[in-house]
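tl;dr need the bound structure. longer version: we got a ligand (zinc ion) that a collaborator sent over and nobodys looked at where it sits. i said id run it. heres the input, straight from their email, havent touched it
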Amino acid sequence: MSVYSKEDVLRILSVIPDPEIPVVNISEMGMLRDVLISDQGYEIIITPTYSGCPAMGLIEHDIRMTLEASGVFPVTVKLVQDPAWTTDWMSDEAKDKLTKYGIAPPLHSSCSNDVFGQNVIACPRCKSTSTILLSRFGSTACKSLYKCNNCKEPFEYFKCH
Ligand SMILES: [Zn+2]
């Protein structure tokens, strides 16, 4: 037992993509909270992003399969909802990747003043700040749909949370 260190386990898990935004991984998204290693095995602590986002079952499955494929077992996955996940836990790298993917990353480090439709959300493609809110809900509840007045392209804004 415990032939793998916490760092090893975190490194192995960093390949797992976010199920909704495949360009970022669960580690960069801040979903991966902790790894506890004991005689009983490896316990992976994760915090779901938005409660409205499904796919946590899928992530649990991916975590177990990925670790077992690397010889890390037995694995238990524990979902912790308190404290709740916040966009503050997303790494800057994750935010950069979102922008390149065409999704405007969360605007504030603190979300209390994230008033939809009143903030200026820059277009992730052309960086124009002339954008309008089309819908509070994009493809998922996590995102709002905007349109750029400059390049005329719609884009999603990953809401602050
Ligand atoms: Zn644009």
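gonna send this back to them w/ a short note. Helices lie at 6-13, 56-69, 92-101.
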